[in-house]
């Protein structure tokens, strides 16, 4: 008899259910006798002992369903060593509930913060398996996270829609793309949608260079331009500031503008006089059905989690490396972010195609 | 020999090219000898004599293409009797260019403002045919405009995406939907996506009623809610003001908030303390490929325009009435808006389903 | 206290669940106290007393879900007066189960055959409401059935895909479109996808005319052509036969060819030597998520069913007429099919655009 | 001044235009002075000197467009050393036309056969760059070809549609998936769509095992099943035959059945009595717009082709390896097929999830 716990933590994304289905199908197919417990609303459910015993039918028909049937909540790592409002020690409560249910393993679907917490629980002696969830694709140690490609699809479709209007009206449009502190979604959606300019956090922009790139298009007789701007895009001046001043500058901009795209639009207008339209697809990028790519990798990730459980190979994060699904020790990844490198070949190729990153 | 001019005026939408293709296919198939002239960037092209002689192949492959291959510009009606910056009389220039090309007819794809101008040109003696273009579906005299259903699709998909996140995180989300001064897109996309609350300009909202509706859902054990809010939504208090004060209040809100959804979110928070997320799909709603519904009606509209040209039956606006494509005199429609009636059966049915309009 | 039964009968389609959700939402919102009983697998469930008592949560999240959560089966009308294999009288059993559950009304989601059965039950004294379900749009008395527009979408997308290949390789392609004995889906998907030739049952084709139309395209320098052919398409020769011979001829073709498209391809090849490719999207046309159009009308249909129940206005079929949802007596519709008329304006407009129906 | 030729050869697929746009954008952005020549209908255009001089605007707006703007034709390798109908030596004609245009390089977008021809031209001294085009993903030496992921999307959506019907009616459905002699599309679309059984050429099936797998589902109370069957699927008995007999057996089946899925359906019915429905999405799988994944990799592939041209590094095939775009000598790949290995980790993971391959 195996008893496996599962939880989804942090911002939701498109293939959470597909991944849980993968884990569950693998478990039911591998072990004669297995019970699956779903903790509700992420680590909260583990801390407070809120869970449901899942039936195989709970996982039927969820392969294509966005969101998470278990609910989610922001991961509690930053505050993990502060007591809960009720004065409970979070780690101890999680261990207690894990042990109370006599779990053989806990499977955690989560992003960076959530995996850091998972690693902590592993260090505390729980049998933990991590599954790399995030639209941002910023988990260190894996080439790909589930959710990323579906988010790229949504962002690309949004830019496609904007493209026809920009072109018909000879306008310059900024589409703001999600991605937290990294530029992966923007980079991919920008290339996929034929954006002319791509601004990402890892390559701070010089507004003069951005305006030059816009100008070049006008001189080539192209009446419209599309900028794909990451929600974390940052200017060279601000990026060059010492940490404290930089944080203050970012906070000041956040207070002034609804979001980064409006700031960039304002700067372009100030520098060049051009009128800029802004579209912010926002949370649509993390919702809806997973695409076929994400459904495949999340199914494989789920199956690998079951392999690890079968082999009692715990404390591992399931990853995709060089096109193969495998697993790495959790502590290798925990606490690190995977950034786009300005020297990354995708950036190099994008520049070869004439896409400006506003840096040169 | 027939010589037909064509132009697309006002904000772009999804089936402009499909409609022009319909007109062109119909013309080439009906008349032995026909020349089609496309004026560039809407009425501007007609005023300044900027046009291209179109070939049949120009209309190949554009059935599914968003935007307009002729370009568009805001219609100039408000200022039609003011001279151009160069001091030209706009109406006279348009007549001159129409006559210089010896046109047999001018086909105008446009929304309310553009059709008003078209009507004026008709009154000036030009042979004009209007085609009802707008995502807003607010043209008086037709049950349906092309672009509307495709915009409903995009808005519905956006709300679908938000739905999975709202549900996974137990959040309240507002999705702001386009539609200018009317609520058609919001009404349809709201029903199509299962929104819990729909706010449209024609039914001013009472924030207390909106919060009551949200409260009812909480009491039913539903942790999340979706509001579909029209970009023109207005509160009862503001709607009740005399025109001048109302305009001032709307302007003040527009200065304070990026858009209406943020205002509503603020009011809900103020009234009830609830945290509200906002998503504004914006211009994505008018871009991208037309759906199959729009491709059919735009093709039929184009064919009807050719029937009218064949019968020399000018000064007509092509419309859909009671599920049949037909035509009405332009002056019947010009200058009037088609609003959602609060007594409309669609509103009545939506209320029957438990959807709140924030009015009762 | 109200007790309402519901069943879905006949081939499944895209907005069955959306419609049931509409009925349920309307019921729960209208009556203080209401119980909903779902009969499983269509009339079978009513005959054999297989049902589930539904909870409000059963209708959550099904707005976008294809198929039917109740299951379906072919409607039993043809044999309704023959006993079941167990020797039971079907009508009596259905009445017995209706009465045993003390139902106030039975809501039947079904196509032509299923509505005929519903009418019979109404004549037997049960309180029945019909909802017009079918991708074929062939229910007499309603301008629109739910499922139709979503099926048009799928068929249109299939032809769109074929279009790029046909065009790249200069090939002639037939795409076979569903629709049973009528041509509605083919007519609409054919126009929406820019098909060059449309063959439907209501306009028998002359293969010589079809080949002439193909020839005209070649002469115009167009290297490829697309035929949208209804699964019920029929040639002039066969259509002209007396009923018995006609049935025999159709049966002979059915035995020889996998489906009608292959027969048409063969005839074209025989007549003109042209090589024809065939694609048959088949059942994909009735599956998947309903589009936004179908989700709206099915929600309205569901709400109207509740209006009728509230008003104890039974024996009615909910319909769409002249763009308004309303209801008609079931017996008006029962047993009649709504065909495309060769004089229908849509056909006339399609011909104006140069589309050949193979008849002239 | 650079003069670059380009051609698309073999069956069309979704990102041909996107790839050509990548090459062109890269060329125009890299070289001061460059002329691009497009040969029409694949190698035919090179043999007969049919080409167009391309303008930068020819590549505008084609990123999302399926098919190929240059047209394509089956590659002529098998017969490359036989003369043309006019008695011309194909290789010599291609060299002559290459030299007449003073080309600096020839870029060939094509699959296995076409790359074999490209390699031959390289060996004959032409400067050739290959780009790996095929929905089948069977080009040896690259992890990924452009077109593949988009084809997986279409096949997955088709199975999704079938899923709702299968589930509503408790039916067993076979969906036949493209892929020529290999099982890549079927494997990925099968996993992505939650197919219960996947049959691919590389893992010959035992009909008894297939029926056992169906039986297991019935015993688990699951009323429906989905089989994803590759167009090249083969039974153990036939696969075990010596080559000549095997070919004869395949040919006999091809004569008897419209396609492989019908043969499998027949065998299942014969073995177990079960009724099976068949859907064959066919050519829809290679048409339509490329998805965002394919648009990214095809853009990168195009950029890499330009790098190679810039570095005069010819005789290379652009490939994706370990998630990086790079290039390999053409002769390494030419003439080899990349098969799914029965020991491939994807197959292993799929089996872990309970998917049957009909082999054990």
Automatic annotation (TrEMBL), chains A, B, C, D:
Any Pfam family: PFK
Magnesium among keywords: yes
Cofactor dependence: Mg(2+)
Pathway the protein acts in: Carbohydrate degradation; glycolysis; D-glyceraldehyde 3-phosphate and glycerone phosphate from D-glucose: step 3/4
Key words of the record: ATP-binding, Cytoplasm, Glycolysis, Kinase, Magnesium, Metal-binding, Nucleotide-binding, Transferase
Record-listed E.C. numbers: 2.7.1.11
Binding site for Mg(2+): 112
Cellular localization per UniProt: Cytoplasm
Record: residues binding substrate: 134-136, 171, 178-180, 231, 277, 283-286
Catalytic activity field: beta-D-fructose 6-phosphate + ATP = beta-D-fructose 1,6-bisphosphate + ADP + H(+)
Residue stretches making up the Phosphofructokinase domain: 3-309
NCBIfam families: PRK03202.1
Quaternary organization: Homodimer or homotetramer.
Alphabetical list of HAMAP family matching this protein: Phosphofructokinase_III (MF_01976)
Similarity comment text for this entry: Belongs to the phosphofructokinase type A (PFKA) family. Mixed-substrate PFK group III subfamily.
Protein name, per record: ATP-dependent 6-phosphofructokinase
Native organism: Coprococcus hominis
């Amino acid at each position: 008899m195996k008893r496996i716990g599962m939880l989804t933590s942090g911002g939701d994304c498109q293939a959470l259910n597909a991944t849980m289905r993968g884990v569950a199908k693998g478990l039911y197919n591998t072990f004669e006798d297995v019970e699956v417990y779903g903790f509700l609303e992420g680590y909260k459910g583990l801390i407070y002992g809120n869970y449901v015993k899942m039936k195989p039918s709970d996982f039927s028909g969820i392969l294509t369903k966005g969101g998470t049937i278990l609910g989610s909540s922001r991961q509690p790592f930053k505050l993990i060593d502060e007591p809960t409002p009720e004065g409970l020690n979070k780690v101890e409560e999680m261990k207690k509930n894990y042990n109370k249910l006599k779990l053989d393993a806990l499977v955690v679907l989560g992003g960076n913060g959530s995996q850091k917490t998972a690693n902590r629980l592993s260090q505390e002696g729980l049998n933990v398996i991590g599954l790399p969830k995030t639209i941002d694709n910023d988990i260190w140690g894996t080439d790909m996270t589930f959710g990323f490609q579906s988010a790229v699809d949504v962002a690309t479709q949004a830019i496609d829609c904007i493209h026809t209007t920009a072109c018909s009206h000879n306008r310059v449009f900024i589409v703001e793309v999600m991605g937290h502190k990294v530029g992966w979604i923007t980079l991919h959606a920008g290339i996929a949608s034929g954006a002319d300019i791509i601004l990402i956090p890892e390559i701070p922009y010089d507004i003069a260079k951005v305006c030059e790139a816009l100008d070049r298009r006008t001189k080539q007789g192209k009446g419209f331009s599309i900028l794909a701007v990451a929600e974390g895009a940052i200017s060279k001046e601000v990026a060059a500031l010492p940490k404290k001043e930089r944080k203050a500058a970012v906070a000041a901009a956040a207070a002034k503008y609804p979001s980064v795209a409006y700031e960039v639009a304002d700067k372009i207008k100030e520098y060049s006089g051009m009128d800029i339209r802004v579209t912010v697809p926002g949370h649509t990028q993390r919702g809806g059905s997973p695409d076929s790519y994400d459904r495949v990798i999340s199914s494989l990730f789920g199956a690998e989690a079951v392999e690890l459980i079968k082999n009692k190979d715990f404390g591992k994060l399931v990853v995709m490396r060089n096109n193969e699904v495998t697993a790495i020790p959790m502590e290798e990844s925990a606490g690190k972010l995977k950034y786009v490198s300005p020297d990354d070949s995708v950036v190099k190729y994008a520049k070869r195609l004439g896409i400006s990153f506003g840096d040169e």
